[in-house]
Amino acid sequence: MDAHFKPEHYHRPVDMKTASALLAQRGARVIAGGTDLLVNGPASTESLVDINGLGLSYIREDDGLRIGSTTSFSYLLRSPLLERYPYRVIADAAGELGHHNLRHVATVGGNICNAVPSADAPVALIALDAAVIIHGPSGERTVPLDGFFKFVRETILGEGEFLKEIAVPVQPESGACFQKLGRTKVDIALVNAACRLSIIDGLISDSRIVLGAVYPTPLRVRAAEDMLNGKEFTVELVAKTAIIASDATKPISDHRASAEYRREISSVLVKRAIIKAYGRAEGSP
Ligand SMILES: Cc1cc2nc3c(=O)[nH]c(=O)nc-3n(C[C@H](O)[C@H](O)[C@H](O)COP(=O)(O)OP(=O)(O)OC[C@H]3O[C@@H](n4cnc5c(N)ncnc54)[C@H](O)[C@@H]3O)c2cc1C
After folding, report:
1. CA angle, residues 21, 24, 25, in degrees to nearest 5
2. Of all residues in the chain, what percent carry a pLDDT higher than 90?
3. Residue of 67, 75, 85, 237 with fewest CB within 10 Å of its CB?
4. Which of 102, 104, 141, 186 for mutating ligand 1's site (highest number of atoms within 8 Å of CB)?
5. Does domain 9-53 bear CATH number 3.30.70.20?
C-alpha cells in the first residue's frame, strides 16, 4: 500500500444513485472486497465508497448470464450455472484465483476494475464475449469487456461511474478452457490464456483466443482466431496458431519471469487451451 493511502471518509450507500453521487466527489474510490485496494491503494484516495450494500452479489440466467459486480469468486464456484460448457471457463478461472480465503472476499468486479494485466477473470470472460454494464450519474451504458481496458490500471470508467454487472451472452454449442501458469498454485499469473471454439461439420468456427499478463491489457488475438476458423483440427494447425498468438504478445521482464519466458509460455498455454477446448466441444469433461 502507498504509505500515504489514508482515506478520511467511508460510505456504504444502499442505492446506485447515491453511490454514483459519492463517487463523483474528488478523491472518491470504490471498495469491493478490498483485496487489491488495501494492498495497492493510491495516495489520492480521500474517501471509500463501499458498494457491497447495493445488492450486486448474484449470478442468474437472463438472456445468457448476468453476474453482479460484487459477486465473490467462491460464490461463482458454487453456482450450478457454471457447470456447463462453455460457461464452465468462468469457474475454471475462479478456481485458479489466489487461494481459498482470498476467493471468499475478492469480487469479480474488483478483478476487472483493478485492470492489472495478470487478472484471471477478464481473460475467461472476454473469451465468452462478455460485456460490462456501467452505472454512472447520467444512467447506464453497456460496453464490450474487450473495450473496457485502456492500459495497466486504466479503464474507461469516468467520473462517478462504477461497474454494476457483467453480461455473458447466450453461447453457441462450444467448448472453452482457461489455462494459467504462476510461480506457485496461489500466485498471480505469469501468463494466463483462454480459448473458446465451436465445431461445425467437422470444422472449427467462431474461435476466441485471449491471453493475460503479456500485454498492458487482456489481449484477444484475432489473427490466431482467423488461423483456426474454418479448418479441421490438426496438431500442426494448433502449433501454428499458438505461435501467432505468442508473436502478438508484448510481455515485460520482472522479478517473476523474463519476457522471453512469458512469450514461450504463452505459446504452450494457448496450445493447451485450444486442445482442451476442442475436446470439450466434442463432449470431453
Ligand atoms: C495474496 C493475493 C493473491 C492474489 N491472487 C490473484 C490471482 O491469482 N489472480 C487474480 O486475478 N488476482 C489476484 N489477486 C488480486 C485481487 O485479489 C483480485 O483482483 C480481486 O478480484 C480484486 O477484487 P476486490 O473485490 O478485492 O477489489 P478491491 O480491492 O475492492 O478493488 C480493486 C480496484 O478496483 C476498483 N473497483 C472494485 N470494484 C469496482 C466496481 N464494481 N466498479 C468500479 N471500480 C471498482 C477499486 O476502486 C480498486 O481500484 C490477488 C491478491 C492478493 C492480495
Report:
1. 100
2. 94
3. 237
4. 102
5. no
